[in-house]
Structures are given as C-alpha cells and as structure tokens.
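Structure (tokenized):
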C-alpha cells in the first residue's frame, strides 16, 4: 500500500507502509494477552489474600476459644483498653506487644485475646499512631482479686491508699509512679491540717519499689513518715532467682532524679535501693509486720509485730503474694521441701519434683531441666495448664515432648518420705495411686497466701472473686 505525504520541503513524498497493518494486529494481540494475564494475576492474588485472611481469622477464632477455655481472656490486673471508634486497624499495637497473644486484629480492629498475659509494658499504647489504646485496670468488674481504688489510689476505706502490685499493676515502673502519685495526693490533703504530737503523717507498709519511691517523695515533701516491711527491702524482686535480669524501664525518683539505666540484675537493683535508703536516711524498718488497722478521728492506729503506730494516712505498698502456700501433707517439714528456686545451676544430677502449674512452677521446672543432668517431674492438680505466659507454654511443651520433663496432670501430693514422694491422680473420675516417685528435692510452687484476710479486716473491698470462681480461675 502506498501513502502520499505532503511536507513543507517537498511537494509530495511516497512512504511505503507495507506490513503496518499486520504489526498493529500483533501488537493489539499482545496487549490483550497482557491484560488478560493481569486479570488472572489479580484474581489469583485476591483469592490468595482471601485465603490468608481466612486462615488468620481461623487462627484468631481458635485463640479466642482457647482463651475462653483456659480463662486467659480474663485480665488479672492491667490490660489494654481499645477505643474501637478511633482504632484504624494498623496492627502496630499487636507488633509492639512483647507478650505473645495479648492482642490481635479481629474484623479490622485491635482486640484483647489473652488479657491475663498483659504485664503492663504499655508498648502497645506507645506504638498506636492514633492514641486508640491505653493500658489500665478498666471497670471495677474487670479487676479480678484487686482491691477497689479510686483514680487517686484511695481504697474503699478513706485515708488508706494502695500502690503497686497489690493495686493490680505489674512492673517496677508502674509501682514507682503510683507510690509517688499516692504520696503527692496525701500531702495535698494534709496541707494545712494540724497533726497530733505522736502521730505520723504517713505510714507506708511495704519496702518494695512502690514503698521506697513513696518514702522518697514523702521525704522530699517533708512528711513525717515510716516504712515497715514484714520481710526485707525489695518486695517481690528479692524473691527472684539469683542474677535474674530485671527490667525497670525509665525511672525518675524523687530526690534522686532520673535513673540512667533501665535494666538491673536482681542483686544490683536491691543494692541500689539500699543505697537510696542510706543516702536519704529513709525511715525503713524490716521484719515488722502489719497485723491490723483501725480508724479513729485523727487517722489510724496500726497494730504491728513490734507495737502500735499512729498515723494520719496509710499507704499499702505490699505485694499480692505473701507467705508461700503449703502443701499440707505429711513430710512437708523436711528440709528437702523448698518454696522458692533461687539458683537452678546449684542443682545438678538431682531427681526433682516441682508442684504447681503457674508460671513460677513452670519456669522453675524448665530451669532445672535445662541444667541437663536433672530428672524433673512436674505435678499439677488441674488437667491442663491454666493461663501460662505464651513463652512458658511453648517451652514446657517442647521439654515435655523431648522427655526432659515429665508432667503429671490431675495429680496431687499425698505424702513425702525421705527420697520418695507419693502422688494421687484422678482422670475422668478414675482415681489411682501413682507409683512412688524418687525425688531428692520437692519444690512447692503453688502460690502464696494473699493479703486478702488483712484487707478484709481493715474493711477494704476486693473485686472480681465471682468471676474467678465462675471459670475455676482460682490461684494454683
């Protein structure tokens, strides 16, 4: 085919377009094929994405069902609270949480799945770009086994305040902040009021992180105060295994200022607190137990193991667990029955029975088994582990599968004799006496006696007991 083209330079020119029509048809065919391939790819991608979402939702549904079955959806204390109206479903909170399974994206928004695993890091709130999440105690109905406290940390008994672990918040950072907050509030309330000649402004019960921070703030504000502790300074931290790494987060202490490190070995942290007490001459007395508290017109009279103390206000900065719970079986008085694992490495080539199924018991069993030379058995009275941290659950399952730990569910200790333990097991209503278990040591890690009797004697209300009983979530 010939095409005549007229240009400015020539009157006319002849251009050969032979084959253009064929090339155009080929190009159109390639474009159509590419478009069709793109459509197929998009369909496959959409199908693949739907399949992934289905699998994710199936896993989330399974996690939710497991959480309901084990009771781990019930927050022990602090837990994330999501503002669904503000949540954009970005998943930042899920990725930031260091405790696996606390949060998940469900139907495009963040949802609490395993609330009991929350330890109050607050990293989810820090990571949220729209401030749709915060970590708190929530409604009174959610505060399982936690005393009722107001926003200013006052208990149901006016003039008695609660800070730290007893109030439901874990972590040293939280306890420290609450100790400071409570004393600041108390000082404001007492300002301008006259005090008796023999009365303290404040009695602080507990010399852990909350109590020490509270004492520093009281000294800073010029409050006449005293600190007592039934054990020694350090609270729960003192009961940690030797050289356990303890994360404090960023701390700012009254009088002292900013602490320039956010992790300590257990021994280092206790030594730091002892230095604070000495430097600022804090009035701390160890081995003094609070046994009662009664109000009167001028404040309170505290009954202690060394006599009475009069104070206008009282701050309870004690832990949630006190005296270790006993097995109450014959032979328990043996020196080979222990209630705390201090250093796993000191146990080598031993036959060990760990009794309990909470995180402390599982962590002890794992630590003993990882020494490589011990024979470790764990006895738990329930048919399955209940509300374990995810990493503890995974580790105990791995070591059980590898034969490094033997787990006896639905079992209880009947009596302890030198070198041997007798256990009873009941499965599906069938009872049996297990063969005698050779054991050099027995670790009874079944929790501690809570301070609830003392709190009730004072008149402090405690919430959430009915919810715990409803799911069988009693301390183990």
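Design, position by position:
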């Amino acid at each position: 085919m010939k095409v005549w083209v007229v240009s400015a330079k020539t009157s006319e020119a002849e251009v050969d377009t032979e084959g253009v029509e064929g090339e155009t048809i080929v190009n159109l065919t390639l474009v159509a094929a590419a478009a069709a391939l793109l459509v197929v790819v998009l369909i496959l991608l959409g199908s693949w994405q739907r399949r992934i979402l289905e699998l994710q939702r199936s896993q989330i549904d399974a996690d939710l069902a497991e959480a309901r079955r084990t009771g781990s959806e019930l927050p022990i204390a602090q837990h994330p609270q999501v503002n669904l109206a503000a949540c954009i479903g970005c998943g930042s909170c899920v990725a930031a949480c260091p405790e696996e399974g606390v949060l998940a994206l469900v139907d495009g928004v963040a949802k609490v799945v395993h609330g009991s695993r929350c330890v109050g890091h607050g990293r989810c709130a820090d990571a949220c770009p729209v401030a749709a999440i915060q970590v708190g105690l929530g409604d009174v109905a959610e505060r399982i086994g936690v005393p009722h406290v107001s926003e200013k940390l006052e208990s149901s008994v006016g003039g008695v305040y609660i800070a730290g672990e007893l109030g439901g918040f874990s972590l040293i950072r939280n306890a420290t902040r609450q100790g400071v907050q409570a004393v600041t509030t108390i000082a404001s309330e007492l300002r301008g009021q006259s005090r008796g000649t023999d009365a303290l402004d404040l009695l602080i019960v507990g010399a852990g992180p909350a109590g020490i921070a509270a004492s520093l703030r009281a000294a800073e504000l010029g409050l006449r105060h005293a600190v007592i502790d039934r054990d020694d300074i350090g609270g729960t931290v003192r009961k940690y295994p030797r050289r356990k790494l303890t994360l404090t987060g960023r701390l700012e202490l009254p009088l002292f200022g900013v602490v320039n490190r956010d992790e300590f070995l257990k021994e280092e942290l206790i030594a730091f607190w002892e230095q604070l007490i000495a430097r600022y001459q804090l009035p701390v007395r160890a081995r003094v137990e609070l046994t009662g508290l009664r109000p009167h017109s001028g404040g309170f009279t505290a009954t202690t193991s060394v006599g009475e103390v009069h104070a206008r206000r009282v701050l309870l900065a004690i832990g949630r667990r006190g005296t270790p719970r006993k097995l109450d079986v014959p032979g328990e008085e043996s020196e080979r029955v222990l209630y705390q694992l201090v250093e796993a490495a000191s146990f080598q080539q031993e036959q060990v029975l760990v009794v309990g199924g909470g995180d402390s018991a599982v962590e002890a069993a794992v630590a003993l088994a990882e020494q490589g030379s011990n024979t470790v058995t764990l006895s738990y009275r329930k048919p399955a582990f209940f509300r374990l941290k995810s990493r503890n659950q995974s580790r105990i399952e791995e070591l059980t599968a590898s034969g490094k730990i033997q787990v006896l569910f639905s079992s209880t200790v009947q009596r302890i004799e030198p070198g041997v333990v007798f256990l009873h097991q009941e499965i599906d209503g069938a009872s049996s006496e297990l063969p005698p278990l050779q054991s050099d040591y027995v670790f009874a890690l079944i929790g501690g006696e809570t301070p609830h009797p003392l709190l009730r004697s004072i008149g402090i209300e405690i919430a959430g007991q009915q919810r715990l009983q409803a799911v069988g979530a009693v301390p183990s």
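Reviewer-requested clarification: Residues 1-15, 138-143, 465-476 have pLDDT under 50 and may be disordered. DSSP finds ten helices and 28 strands in the chain.
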